[in-house]
């Protein structure tokens, strides 16, 4: 799948226009300048529109289709078995849903530790009162994935400790209750996450997004 196709699909999968930073996060295309150039080309071709968003940044949206438009067709066979493009796109939708639930605008954020270490966070509000990591996964977590959630919780806790001391909410957001079922009850992993001050939130995704995640998981596990 080309960068151009990935960007168009990410815009189509989102429930709202996305800025270049969000598209880079959703598609994994780096550096951001590549995303910016492709979006400019898509806009020049009339496939998308670029306009100022509510936060002042330029956002990208799909131009309304006409009968003459040719749809972007993606052959699943061309996608690598371990591709997580669908998950990253879904995580953008999850971040938006979580933000609505908590009453804040969450965006991908890079935080620099005093040591110089840079940490990417899936979502934070401008005041950084909420720090969130998202995981788009359907079904039970496999062994290695269970440790991913603990690792994400440790990252959130560590970042909160080095930021200015204000009240913060640390959240692990998932798309399926089954993915965190192992963290409920007396699970040591669940107790460890709670002890780190991290809460779990489950958000529902549209059926077509869930179907895309399941297809991606099939490729990864085949």
Tell me about this structure.
By secondary structure, the chain is α/β, with parallel strands linked by helices. It folds into 2 domains: 3-74, Winged helix-like DNA-binding domain superfamily/Winged helix DNA-binding domain (Arc Repressor Mutant, subunit A, Orthogonal Bundle); 85-221, Trna Endonuclease, Chain: A, domain 1 (3-Layer(aba) Sandwich). The chain has helices at residues 3-13, 20-27, 32-44, 85-102, 143-162, 188-195, 207-221, and strands at 18-19, 48-52, 58-62, 107-112, 118-124, 130-135, 169-174, 198-202. The strands form 2 sheets. It has a 5-stranded mixed sheet with strand order 4-5-6-7-8, with helices on both faces. It has a 3-stranded antiparallel sheet with strand order 1-3-2. β4 and β5 form a beta hairpin. Mean pLDDT is 82; it is low at 65-83.
Concise overview:
The protein is 42% helix and 19% strand. The protein is of the alpha/beta class and 222 residues long. It folds into 2 domains: 72 residues, Arc Repressor Mutant, subunit A, CATH 1.10.10.10; 137 residues, 3-Layer(aba) Sandwich (Trna Endonuclease, Chain: A, domain 1).
Low-confidence stretches: 65-83
- Multimeric state: single chain
For this structure, what is the CATH class of the largest domain? Answer: Alpha Beta
Structural class: alpha/beta
CATH fold-level topology of the largest domain:
Trna Endonuclease, Chain: A, domain 1
Shape: globular
- State Rg: 18 Å
Task: Quote the distance from N terminus to C terminus.
Answer: 19 Å
Task: Tell me the fraction of residues in β-strands, as a range.
Answer: 15-25%
Q: Average pLDDT, to the nearest integer?
A: 82
Largest sheet: 5 strands, mixed
- Counting DSSP E segments of at least 2 residues, the number of strands comes to 8
